[in-house]
What does this fold into?
Amino acid sequence: MALTGQLWVTSSLGGYLGNRKLSRTLRHAAQPLMKFRQFCQIKEALGKNKNDLIFFDKISNVASAGGTLVETNTMPETQITIQTGTILVTEYGNSVPFTGKLETLAEFDVDNIVTVVLRNDEAKVLDSAVGDQFKATQIKYCCISTSSGAFATRTNGTATSTATANFDVYHLKECADKLKTLNVQKYDGENYVCIASVNAVRGIKDHTQFTDAAKYGDPERLFSGECGRIYGVRVIEETNYLSNARGDGAVDGEAIMFGADAVMEAVALQEEIRAKIPGDYGRSRGIAWYGILGFAKIWDATVDSECHIIHINGL
It folds into this structure.
């Protein structure tokens, strides 16, 4: 039997008697862990009017080593080679437009909402740009089993093989030893750094040697996102750039290990938040982030015969 009285379901018969409540708490989408940019080894603050292509010099070791001398012989002479690297600075940015009417009628500060999401976007974009340079290294390592792995040098830095074992402490030691044989200096003077995806880090965390090493207690964390240190390697977990699905079946995740002088950052204009000049008599508004920057790996294995970065599970 149909009711003819007042009803909540019909606005004109009762629904208008209640006002919808708007929660005062704003909730933003989850953000990834962004860890690469903090490891740009050298930051060049170039400023304006310096062109878009930046050069930097790389000095080789002496061509011939010194040694013992004979009193009556002349001093041996040698030379060094100077290589030039380049960084191309380019524009980065993004924007969110909105109307003056929205800004006037909204209960929340639209400027603040937009600024937060643009700051998050800025961090993710630039962190990924730095990650591109780390992963462009020519030295690749592929996890084959729990006790074997393979190194290869790819002239174009492109991966061609698939991992068949999880990245774990054995592979971490192999890559650390490789950097040592290449005479790569430790990042902080004492440790190399390994940035890994969640699945790759899991292979480290589940290893008994890592859990035992964690028992000694090290509350100090030198780098953002650090989850532990073992065999002279600081392990950093990130979720923004590296793949969790790189591998065969359950064998997945990828990582980057490096020492000092890995990636350089050049800044012509530091990234910043900008407000749009209002248009259409103030009815058209917007906010953007903008910067002019460049990133480049410093050493090239095929040019300099030197490399300071290993891409793990990227053979």
